[in-house]
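lol ok so funny story. i was supposed to be doing the assay writeup but got distracted and ended up predicting the structure for this chain instead. priorities right. anyway since i did it might as well share w the group, maybe its usefull for someone
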Amino acid sequence: MEMVIDFPGGARVDAHFGPFVVPTDQLPSGGGQGSAPTPFLTFLSTIGTCAGIYVLGFCRQRGIPTEGIRLVQRMGADPATGMITNVQVTIELPAGFPEKYADAVVRAAEQCAVKKHFERPPVIEVVSTIG
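and the output, tada:
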C-alpha cells in the first residue's frame, strides 16, 4: 500500500490513498486555519474508530441495534513530556442492550487492528530522495 502526502497550502498536510484524502491542519495557534484535525489527533482517533468498527460488526452479526451505543476515548498524558501514557475506550451501552453481550462487545473491540499494531508496533523508517 502506498500513501502520497502533499502540502495543499498553509499548514495543511494531506494524505492520499486510493480514492480517499485525509486532510490535516494545525490549529490557528500553531500557524494553521484549524480546518481539519491535526495529524496527531487524526492518529489518536483511529483507536476509537477502529474499535467502533468491531463493535458495529459485533452488533450487526447478532441483529443488535446500535442506536444509543457510543464509544468515548480518553487519553492520559505525562505532564513533563506531554506524551500519551494511556488510552481508555469506554463502550457506553444503552438500557436494553443484551446484558449477556456486555463483556463480549469489549472483547470484540479489543480485536481492533490499530490496537494490535500498538501492541507490536512496526519499525518506522524515514528516508529522502532527490529528483
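Residues 37-119 form a domain with the GMP Synthetase; Chain A, domain 3 fold (CATH 3.30.300.20). The beta strands are 4-9, 12-17, 20-22, 70-77, 84-92.
back to the writeup now i swear
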